[in-house]
From TrEMBL:
Alphabetical list of InterPro entries matching this protein: RNaseA (IPR001427), RNaseA-like_dom_sf (IPR036816), RNaseA_AS (IPR023411), RNaseA_domain (IPR023412)
Protein name: Ribonuclease like 2
Location within or outside the cell: Secreted
GO aspect biological process, one term: defense response to Gram-positive bacterium
Record GO cellular component, one term: extracellular region
Organism encoding this protein: Cyprinus carpio carpio
Keywords: Disulfide bond, Endonuclease, Hydrolase, Nuclease, Secreted, Signal
SUPFAM superfamilies recorded: RNase A-like
């Protein structure tokens, strides 16, 4: 069987486009959910109620989420934690090599939406992320 030169070129183009964009289709929805729930460059400790409501963050169908953390950094900087900017912690978890500013929103009252009320606190922490093939898909915890 002979491989046609145009087939090789097509294969190289496909490989280059995959590398350029890089995100497998099965990761896209999980990565987008991670961004929506945990990335907030401009979120302040006073924004918890508004941001959690606006982003439709819940624990279950109508339940208030007990705690939600927003990382105050650009998504490209956060993604580095899943590679050279993080230290493997076992399974698919990576701890950031440097601390990040975060806003942690804790439920202070309410059990069901829309009555969820949060209190926010800003801090700087090392973050632990669940990663899949170099993409953050889960916020595990923050470590002081």
């Amino acid at each position: 069987m002979e491989i046609h030169p145009s087939a090789v070129i097509l294969l190289l183009l496909l490989a280059a486009s995959f590398t350029a964009y890089g995100q497998p289709d099965d990761i896209k929805p999980r990565y987008q959910k991670f961004l929506s729930q945990h990335v907030g460059l401009r979120v302040s400790e006073h924004d918890c109620n508004r941001e959690i409501r606006k982003r439709d963050i819940t624990a279950s169908e109508n339940g208030c989420k007990e705690v939600n953390t927003f990382i105050k950094a650009k998504k490209d900087i956060i993604r580095v934690v899943c590679g050279k900017g993080g230290t493997p912690q076992g399974k698919n978890l990576f701890k950031s090599n440097k601390p990040f500013p975060v806003v942690t929103c804790k439920l202070k009252s309410g059990e069901r939406r829309p009555k969820c009320q949060y209190r926010g606190k800003k801090s700087t922490r090392y973050i632990v992320l669940g990663c899949d093939r170099g993409w953050p898909v889960h916020y595990e915890e923050g470590i002081i």
